[in-house]
């Protein structure tokens, strides 16, 4: 059984998406040129999610990857909702008032976000009303709080993360009269998701991370080589500070049982996450909700199961760590990816592969004949060769796809081995998860000219 | 290096030839040592100021001075012939599909040929001939069509076999060719030197030439040019000619009152090589390989080869910037595909050494035709620009026509296809131009089949019904920025690629249009005709009537509610416009004209209506949606919707009444359909458009109503011998020449424009006659279809060309309309065309070299008119241009 190159390509490209910040005949004021994103599922259905949107009422662009576990419900909800929470947190008081007035009077709402979605990236229609009401409660509280201070992006990101997680938890406790929705909010709350979100506004880049997805900046050194700068810390057992933090938050008596086999309470890989109320609620609350919940929930062994050594919840938080970075002209791109990528590739390789891909696409040195003696035939040969080189790079129109191709297909020499690629992609569903994880990648490209002009 | 060479050459030539510098010693000629001669001061006033010292500016100066104009000043911001002209490939090619362009190129060729003798300036003129290659049968057909029109103009031209190509040019690979067209008299020139020769001759005739003088703007007062401001002072003038090439747009916009000149530059690349081992003969013909997108000419023993690539690079969208023409980059990767095509065509050139890749910007226009004429808003402001990279071919002829225009008020040929007034402000958006020229440039060498449409710059002007019609399968074409329906693809039919069907034969939509025509004949169809130009003219007293009576040939003093078909004629009795005018009240008139008349007609009326604040001319085009209800059941639909009797007794033909349709009131209903079929046009205030359309479609259901498009309309009007302005009628055609005497009231009791000529023609006869031809032995399925521009032969002799054609579903034959002349067999002189002359001939129409028998008719088939509702006045006019 062997996949032909076109078959491989159709699998790799099925979820690819590109967005170019609209440029009006050379007039481009955004520091972001655009982004490429892609996903390759290993789970069926895939548990990763991705989001990208432009803030319409404030400046800036939001991009994020979300790695779900115990189902995709939580990652889905976070991918739909988190950017609204962030955008609302960033809004000035007057805009909030305007929006609230519009809702109050049934007038048309100012659009808050312009989404950039692949056709496969869906939004839940059924829950939109519920989600909207929670969001509205949030902005009403923001209006009441009116601190009068200008919104700090770091704070906005932290507030938005925490608030959304809180709403997820509350919705599950309150339930919904509609049985479908009721089941949905419970599934969201009992599953979990990491989130790694970037907010780019001019030269200000903020990355808010919860969990073990990662953000990495691609930097081109003066000699043209590529290096990687981490813009997030993984929240897992490999991060000493994280382990330290968890231990600090619980009594000494639990020290041994807190992290076992590199997992939180011996169960959970990421040390921070959305949802996962099994690690946040008290045992009583969990039991009450599960018992009063729908039968499907009751029959589910996982939801009924209480983690061992569960004494002082919460053990888990959705609060992100935020890193601020001032973009410089040598900062060429940002990669946001779920751990599926980072497990297989070193960030240094990621920087190099993406960097070379992007420059190969954009900067092939122009030829000048000058004073040399060149014949038509020689020139023709040279041009044909250049075209061939470009088209091999152009096999992927999308930097994220290019990266996935390397992540899945790289042999020991660091080049794509088609046979390996074919084998990895033709694994049956039940085996795929053993060899690779879901991979979700967003590659954001920066406009050095705009950044340099700041 | 080659650029430098040309540059040096042109400097030397110009100085040697220029009287002022004649005595200079040769050592002073070198650019580095020459001190700038003290510039003559600018004159304070002149009759004509020409801006631009390229081929266009110098040609206009040359012709104006030849025609006796004194007091002409030519201003050039840099050096003469230093812009696009200097870089131009220097190919003079007459093989042009548009007849007026063909004439210009033909004249240019003759002019350049004798220019060296006339001026003493070496022009490098060399008659090499040109060969256009066809790699496909369709390409060969398009070449044959051009060959037909060249031949009837007396320009030698033949279709040759690939083998013959090889004899004429030994380097060519002919294996993929199906044929070629050979034009032996095409030539090569040094374009900069042609321009300098023209300047020299002009200068001898008294034209003052000032280099290094740039025009900052043109001053316009009360709609007239009064002078130009330059960096060296002001010159008062009566006429200004904008020949600024790719800067024409900016120059047009520099003044307070902008003159919109829609041109946009694209980079154009060509390659220069060192000489071959055995240098190529300078008489070797030029090769044009449109399927390979390239041209190849001999150049100093080597070759010069360029082309029109699929992915052009537009530039200067934001106007002029620091990028000077000289600094444009060579882009070999961009040139790659053209180089491949070159080596495929001439594989033997592999070892030839490259000299340079020249990047030379060329200006392009939105419709691939050049721009000439007077500004619609500023009298005396003339333009000649946008040559679409054929400047050297057109230069001579274009300069001549523009000079005639300035001197005589009109050129000696119909130049409407090139007239600046075919464009309005709407084609002047830089975004539109940038996108459109990216389509136009590759189109230079694309195969142009009948009825192709531009794909860029679309959906600019639309009817409020656009989405409704689109959802019902409408396929669209565009006129003056307005989207119009060609036909409706019935639901369920799998004709997705219908728009892409490119053929010279029977098109895919044949049956679709056939069924729309059938519905027009038997039931009722709706055609959205909102694109028409609509003006209202009203006055407090009789001023409107009096002015219109002078400007229009028919009698407009008709009872209120009558509609009059009439021409808007020029002094020579020719149609400047053909329109329908409804008398809304004693003192107000509603005028319908073809879509592309919006600018021209407005300017014509504005310039001629008395300056009287009590007389108001208003453009109401955008205010009304027009629905044309065609067919015998239109009357039923409308009477049900209005509760008003619509039969002939109550609503005779050529009537106009405001009435209600459905809930909507104030709908102007006119009993005309522009096709000769019974029916009505509804002029609906746009906010009611959707309502009225819905009502009409609902009510019409029981009468079998359906949507139809312009192709159906066209078939209907042509089979009824209706002439359309812009297609059949032009400023050189009088009503007498197209059988429309009945639309002229010579005795209306007052003088009108063109009256004298018409009276003279009535007495002495006409020199051409609009005639209808029915193709006899033409197989609709198998034979090439006629389009327009096909030569007409009478008793084997060429007598004229067709102007439009369509398949008549009623006659089940092709119908061609066209003009028949009577050329004296000995002298070629034009003689009077009589009815007998028309009737007593055997006719043939030449479609791409194949002749088909045709029957000539001067009157339409009366059997085609389903019913005559007003005995005396059958609607015998249609007018919109296709």
Automatic annotation (TrEMBL), chain A:
Assigned GO CC terms: mitochondrion
UniProt entry keywords in alphabetical sequence: Acetylation, Calcium, Hydrolase, Magnesium, Metal-binding, Mitochondrion, Protein phosphatase, Transit peptide
CDD domains linked to this entry: PP2Cc
GO MF: [pyruvate dehydrogenase (acetyl-transferring)]-phosphatase activity; metal ion binding
Record EC number: 3.1.3.43
Residues covered by the PPM-type phosphatase domain: 32-446
SUPFAM superfamilies named in the record: PP2C-like
Intracellular or extracellular location(s): Mitochondrion
Cofactor(s), names only, from the UniProt record: Mg(2+); Mn(2+)
Annotated catalysed reactions: O-phospho-L-seryl-[pyruvate dehydrogenase E1 alpha subunit] + H2O = L-seryl-[pyruvate dehydrogenase E1 alpha subunit] + phosphate
InterPro entries tied to this protein: PP2C, PP2C_BS, PPM-type-like_dom_sf, PPM-type_phosphatase-like_dom
EC top class named in words: hydrolase
Main location: mitochondrion
Pfam families xref list: PP2C
Assembly notes: Heterodimer of a catalytic (PDP1) and a regulatory (PDPR) subunit.
Function: Mitochondrial enzyme that catalyzes the dephosphorylation and concomitant reactivation of the alpha subunit of the E1 component of the pyruvate dehydrogenase complex (PDC), thereby stimulating the conversion of pyruvate into acetyl-CoA.
PANTHER family: [PYRUVATE DEHYDROGENASE [ACETYL-TRANSFERRING]]-PHOSPHATASE 1, MITOCHONDRIAL, PROTEIN PHOSPHATASE 2C
Family that this chain belongs to: Belongs to the PP2C family.
Protein name in UniProt: [Pyruvate dehydrogenase [acetyl-transferring]]-phosphatase 1, mitochondrial
Organism: Urocynchramus pylzowi
The gene coding this protein: Pdp1
From TrEMBL, chain B:
Gene3D superfamilies, per the entry: Aminomethyltransferase beta-barrel domains, D-Amino Acid Oxidase, subunit A, domain 2, FAD/NAD(P)-binding domain, Probable tRNA modification gtpase trme, domain 1
Location in or out of the cell: Mitochondrion matrix
Domain called Rhodanese: residue spans: 48-91
Keywords: Mitochondrion, Transit peptide
PROSITE patterns assigned to the protein according to its UniProt record, in alphabetical order: RHODANESE_3
Family the entry assigns: Belongs to the GcvT family.
Subunit architecture: Heterodimer of a catalytic (PDP1) and a regulatory (PDPR) subunit.
Protein's name in the database: Pyruvate dehydrogenase phosphatase regulatory subunit, mitochondrial
Organism: Urocynchramus pylzowi
